[in-house]
Amino acid sequence: MILYFSGTGNSEYVAGRLAEAISDEYLDICQRLKNNDYSAFSSDRPWVIVAPTYAWQAPRMIRKWLIKTRLSGEKKIYFVLTCEASVGDAAGYLKAIAERKKLEYMGLGRVIMPNNYFILSKVPDREKALEIIAGSEEHINELAYRIKNREPFDEIKRRLFDKTKSKGINKSFNSWFGKHPIDRKFEALDSCVGCGNCEKVCPTGNISIGEDKKPVWSGNCVQCLSCISRCPEDAIVYGKKHKEKYFCPKL
Ligand SMILES: Cc1cc2nc3c(=O)[nH]c(=O)nc-3n(C[C@H](O)[C@H](O)[C@H](O)COP(=O)(O)O)c2cc1C
Q1: Distance from Cα 9 to the centre of ligand 1, integer Å
Q2: Based on the domain organization, do 87 and 200 belong to the same domain?
Q3: Residues with Cβ within 6 A of ligand 1?
Q4: What is the residue range of 93's domain?
Q5: Same domain, 195 and 158
Q6: pLDDT tens digits along 134-178
Q7: What CATH number is attached to the domain comprising 101?
Q8: Are residue 10 and residue 108 in the same domain, yes or no?
Q9: Which pLDDT value is given to residue 224?
Q10: Is residue 96 domain-shared with residue 42, that is, in the same domain?
Q11: Average of pLDDT values for 39-48?
Q12: For 100, phi and psi rounded to 5 degrees?
C-alpha cells in the first residue's frame, strides 16, 4: 500500500506512477496528518511512503505521524522522497523509524523532481519542469520494479555535510517554523471566493476561514505550499512581490 503526502503535486504524481506500475492503491494521508488521525492500516503488500523532502529530511510531520500509526500485515517498508537535488542523510532517520516499528527497512528512493519552493527560490517554467520529470521516469520505473520484486533499493551515497544538513540544519529549519510566524506573509486576494479549499488541503490544520470568508493562517505552517498551488481561483499570494507559482505539470 502506498501512502503519500504532496504539497504541490510532485510526490502525488510519483505515488500515482508507482501505484500504476505495481498495481497497488495509493492513499493521500493529508487529512490524517491534519486530524492527528493515527488509526491503523493493514496491507499484505509492501508499504511505500512517498513524500517531498524538506530541509534534507522527510517532513517532520510525516515522521511523527508514521511513528504513531500502526501498519499491520506486511513487514517490508520502502520510502520514496521527491526532491530538487538532495535528501541528505534522510535515509538514516527513516531506517531508524522502520526499526522502531519492527518493520523491514527496504531503502530510500530519491526521485529528482522540479523545485517547488517558489516563495524563496526560483522554480522552473513548465517546459523545464516537464524535462526534469521526464529525466526521472526511468528511475521511477526502476523503483517500481524493485518494490514489485520485493528487492531493496540501492543505497544513496552520503556526501560531505549530508549529516549536518539532515541533523543540525533540519532542526533549525523546523524550530524556525515554531518561533516565527512565517505565514504572516500569506494573503488572500480580492479574487478569493471563500471556497475553503486552502483550509481542506492544509496538512497542519493551520488555515481556517474567517468571518469575512477569507483564509486565516495561524502560525503553524510547514511551507508545503499546498494552499497557494491548489487554490482554484489562484487567489493566494506570499508577500507583496507575487512570485511564479509551481504545481506539478503532469497532474
Ligand atoms: C520547505 C521546503 C524545503 C525543501 N527542502 C529541500 C531539500 O532539502 N532538498 C531538495 O532537494 N529539495 C527540497 N525542496 C524541494 C521539494 O522537496 C521538491 O520540489 C518536492 O518534489 C516537492 O514535492 P511536492 O510537490 O509533492 O510537495 C524543498 C521544498 C520546500 C517547499
Answers
A1: 11
A2: no
A3: 6-11, 52-56, 82-86, 113, 115-117, 223-225, 248
A4: 2-162
A5: no
A6: 999 999 999 999 999 999 999 998 888 999 999 988 998 888 765
A7: 3.40.50.360
A8: yes
A9: 96
A10: yes
A11: 97
A12: -60, -35
Mean pLDDT of 28-46: 98
Q: Can you tell me which atom of ligand 1 is nearest the CA of 87?
A: 9
- The number of C-alpha atoms within 13 Å of 139 and in the hemisphere containing its C-beta is 17
Please give the pLDDT value at position 178: 59
Q: Report the atom number in ligand 1 closest to the C-alpha of 246.
A: 25
Residue 82 in domain: yes
